[in-house]
Each structure stands twice: as structure tokens, then as C-alpha cells.
Amino acid sequence: MPSDLERCIMKVVDGVHAQGSYFYMQIGAAGRQPFPDDPQISRSPTFPHIGASALPPSAGAPASRARMKEEIKEHLDFFGTAATNAAGFDGVKIHGANGVLVDEFIQSMFGRAVEAVRGVVRVRLRLRPSNRTGGMGMDGPLPTFSHLVMRVKELYPDFAYLHVIEVRVDGGREVETDDFIRKILWAPRPVISAGGYTRELGMQTAEEKGGLNAYGMWYISNFQSDLPKRLEKNIPLTKYDRSTFYMEILVV
Ligand SMILES: Cc1cc2nc3c(=O)[nH]c(=O)nc-3n(C[C@H](O)[C@H](O)[C@H](O)COP(=O)(O)O)c2cc1C
């Protein structure tokens, strides 16, 4: 019996399908990123603060508890359950970027091996090799991420696509691109890339490199007025307001 929330979500999914588009559900575990003084954590015992190891995400931040071996299996089951619950969507996307739990298992500073998540329907994966935020950013990410991408390619011929986040969103830092994934490793399979796209940069990238571009912050401030149409017709975009990005939600 679906809950009220699930019924509402499926209405949105049905609406997207009615317009001839697709909808993937992102599933992920936040790992060490949320702090225990985050209201979502402190008010609910169902959100233990665990990560791949007991390293804090930044100096002075509370350290997460290193997950125990049996909790890895438990988390794999959580991912499986979440994927099963996504029936009605066109597939699921595993969040493996921005320092969330899967990213922690990939990157070497945790000294842990990556655990494969299996048994889901149409899967896509979101990666961010060059990310420095949230205390991430292993030295020399290329061999690790190359191996990961090649293994996914070998093991899962039906894998829907990879979604990478370009590092230029880190502002002020030298721009690095994840073209090695797009051009060398994953080609000719589909890549979606996100990170700091303007209309001009998006069009240029699509023309020069192919694939799809994703818009994050611009989508938030323009989704009600149809961002794709605005981009297509070159209608000015409504500027986003960072102070509205994150809200406190009471979890009971
Ligand atoms: C408020 C906010 C929430 C976000 N939440 C997620 C998330 O849950 N999962 C994810 O993969 N990326 C998340 N992102 C990252 C965006 O999907 C996107 O990759 C990032 O904002 C860079 O693209 P942009 O420069 O077009 O905004 C979030 C970004 C913002 C601003």
C-alpha cells in the first residue's frame, strides 16, 4: 500500500512520463557528511552518523563512526530496497559523488575498498573524481576512477549512463575536466555532465563533446518556468538564491 508521499511522488513521475520524458530516482547514503547537530540526525535515531571510517569531513567537524562490517551488508540491502521501491521510475541513479558514502569507499584517504552495489534494474552512477569539497579529493584520482569506470563498463553492459560533475563548480580553482571518463573510458556510452553550465557553455560542450548537460542551481530557480524552453529560446533566466537552497525539515 503506497504512502501519501509515494502517491505524490508517483504523480510527478506520471506527469513527466506524460510529457514523453524519463525519470530516474537517485538513491544514496550521506555517510559522514551530515553532522550530529543537523536536526535530521539529532531528532531521529534512525539516522546514525556513520562513514567509511572515523575521519571528520573537515577540521573540527564531528567525526562519524566507522561503519562495521555487517553494516556494509545492511547498506547494500538498503540500496536494494530503495531500488525496488523505485518501481515506476525509469531506473535508479546511485549517488557516488560529493563525499557521500559510496564516494568515501572509492577514495583512498579512507583506506577502504569500494563495495559493489548490485541487483538493480536500470542503473546510472554519479561520480566526481576531482571534487575537493566535503573533505574529499584523493591524490591522483585517475587510476582509481579509471578502474571503477572500466569495471562498471565490463560488468554491466546495460548500465544506463554515467553522470559526472565537473570541478569548475569549486569556484576560483583551476578548471579540471573529467573528459578522461567521457572520451577515453566510457565512450561511446552516454555521459551526463553537470557543473557550472551557462547556456553558452552548455551549447558549446554539447556541440564539441556530445552527451547531455545537467543544470542544478539554474534548474532550482527556473523549473516552474520551464528551464529547457528558456535555454532553447534564449530567454533570460531567473537568478538563483543560495540562501533558499537548504531548509530544515523535521524528520519524525
Ligand atoms: C540545493 C542543492 C542540492 C543538491 N542536491 C544534490 C543531490 O541530492 N544529489 C546530487 O547528485 N547532486 C546534488 N546537487 C548538485 C547538483 O546536482 C549539481 O551537480 C551542482 O549544483 C552543479 O551543477 P550546477 O552548477 O548546474 O548547479 C545539489 C545542488 C544544490 C544546489
Automatic annotation (TrEMBL):
It comes from the Eukaryota. Transmembrane segments: none annotated. GO terms for molecular function: FMN binding; oxidoreductase activity. Residues 11-126 form the NADH:flavin oxidoreductase/NADH oxidase N-terminal domain. Gene3D superfamilies: Aldolase class I. It holds the Pfam family Oxidored_FMN. PANTHER family: NADH OXIDOREDUCTASE-RELATED (PTHR22893), NADPH DEHYDROGENASE 2-RELATED (PTHR22893:SF91). This is FMN-linked oxidoreductase. It comes from Guyanagaster necrorhizus.
